[in-house]
Specification:
306 residues; alpha+beta; Tetrahydropterin Synthase, Chain A; 3 domains; three-stranded antiparallel beta sheet
């Protein structure tokens, strides 16, 4: 192989290496920072790009949401109880240039910042509030970290407290307290149930007595109505009989049956000593009246003769 051929092959090899170093591919979830002689030049998006090898350099920044695991640490609450807390922080790059040049190690910086602010937030709470206010802690810590990391070109999406572990003796005391509270609630519930049962029974007895009294009153009313109807029927019958007798006497045309009935009643009254009057037919009464008139005439003639 001649020297010229070697030179050509070397040139071709150098050209291939140069092109390979010049071609840069930026993925969809990335952005590229191009530096020239160590100085920031521009930011490029996803796709195919060319740089000048040995003069320019590209740094790629992942723009996807990332997670920072905050190691467990001991935190003292407001009521001087030591609890172990760990959390996770979710962040996303918003400005790749700030993220690349404003902080040397973002993961370490975010972890230390989260630990410090976690101590501050939980240190202002009592143990009971810290155990029952995780959402409040998450929101407050996220706002603090988001404001602090804004200069680093990131946005804190959310913060999640994984667990808050009190000491063993405190946990046991809480279990005893919870057990006593549940027993108290059980006793109260049972007492309220017994009270309600007694009230319902009393109301049932009261309602039963009311219904029984109403039934008795209804029965008395029905009996009274029946007796009233019976008396009214008897009175109407007697009234009709009296009207018939009275009409027969004043019309002068008594029926034989009516005369016989009144005659028998009069005889029974005389026999019992209860009747002092005897009803006679109209013809008998007329004869007696005529005899009385004749007697008065004779009496008047005797007075004239004298």
């Amino acid at each position: 192989m001649t020297a010229a051929a070697v030179v050509v092959l070397a040139f071709i090899l150098l050209l291939v290496i140069y092109v390979a170093l010049a071609i840069k591919i930026v993925q969809q979830h990335e952005q590229g920072l191009i530096e020239r002689f160590g100085r920031y030049r521009k930011t490029v998006g996803p796709g195919f790009h060319m740089i000048v090898p040995f003069i320019e350099k590209m740094r790629k920044v992942d723009m996807r949401e990332q997670v920072v695991d905050v190691p467990p640490q001991e935190v003292i609450t407001k009521d001087n109880v030591v609890v172990t807390v760990d959390a996770v922080v979710y962040y996303q790059a918003t400005d790749p240039m700030k993220l690349m040049y404003n902080v040397a190690n973002f993961i370490l910086a975010a972890t230390k910042l989260a630990q410090t602010n976690l101590r501050n937030v939980i240190g202002d709470m009592d143990l009971d509030a810290a155990l029952t206010s995780r959402e409040t802690i998450n929101t407050e810590l996220r706002e603090i970290l988001d404001e602090a990391t804004d200069v680093w070109g990131t946005r804190v999406v959310r913060v999640e407290i994984q667990r808050i572990d009190p000491p063993v003796d405190v946990t046991q005391a809480m279990h005893r307290q919870m057990k006593a509270e549940r027993e108290r609630r059980a006793v109260v519930t049972e007492a309220e149930g017994e009270k309600r049962s007694q009230i319902l029974r009393a109301e049932g007895v009261k309602q039963s007595r009311i219904l029984e009294a109403e039934g008795q009153a209804q029965a008395i009313r029905e009996v009274a109505d029946a007796e009233k109807f019976q008396l009214l029927t008897l009175a109407e019958g007697e009234g009709q009989a009296i009207e018939r007798v009275y009409g027969a006497i004043h019309t002068g045309d008594p029926t034989p049956d009516l005369i016989a009935i009144k005659y028998l009643e009069a005889l029974q009254g005389i026999a019992d000593g209860k009747a002092t009057k005897l009803f006679l037919p109209m013809e008998t009464a007329g004869i007696l009246g005529s005899l009385g008139a004749i007697g008065e005439i004779f009496a008047n003639q005797d007075e004239v003769a004298e």
